[in-house]
Amino acid sequence: MINNRKAYKIFMTLPEEERKKLSVEHEIAEIDNLEDKDWLNRFGNWRNGHNGSFWNWLWMIHFKEKYKDVKLEDIGVDMTKPIRINKKFEYPTSTRALIDGKRHYDVGTKEKLPSVTTILSGTQSEEKKASLKAWQDKVGIDKAEQIKNEAASRGSTMHAILEDFIDGKERVDLTKNGKLAASMAEQIIEKGLCNVSEIWGSEVTVYYPGLYAGATDLVGIYNDKPAIIDFKQSNKPKRREWIDDYKHQLAGYALAHNKVHGTRITSGVVLMCTKDNYFQEFVFEGDEFLEAGTEFMAKVAQYYAQRKE
Prior knowledge:
This protein is an alpha+beta fold and 309 residues long.
């Protein structure tokens, strides 16, 4: 995996025309090898239903001989941050606090704002509550708590690895949890972050004045569009219709960013990897994302109405 990361960093510093040339060469090679399962499992594009990696192909075919004895950190200063960092907005510093066990943010406005996740949790449908309880009853309370804690720990470590990567750092965690989280992060780097061309902020606080706040994993340009981007871990693959909460979360962040910074972000992206290293990309945009914003603001209104009861 370290070689794939080398390939990624090298690739991202090449001129745009050279990157396009290599991408086309890989597409042609994939077509030429459609009957070769071994090739597809090593080098085939995951978007086409194969298990290989473009970065592995780049390394083995183009970069290995030149860079095989070079350490990741020694490839070159320009390659330590392969994605352009554009700090065009000033994001607030914040402190977190628990009020009645629920996360709130102090962003310097003399009020503690509920987090986006606090609002979503507090406005869960009865159907979702019943589904969660049914799962807990099925596996048992203790087992359910163990599964949630393990997932939370794995997710936190994966996020830390991705944050360090974006900052041009290398995080090493040789624990069992760390190794698993690292392999999951690698999938997101290879198959998701390759579509990020510019970063406006990483792990930054956004807030909607007087209503709510939250911390988003990434704000920037994804596939040539301004987007809110979030990293997620999962125990198993998800269907699109199962992740409305994620969609509403991203929409809430986008509305807050647009309100405070005057942007027009109309796209949200979830980059997800399971503990079995299965990568999924979910992109919400256009009318679907605008509708999600309307639905989220309705939840905000519901949350504050419930507090008055």
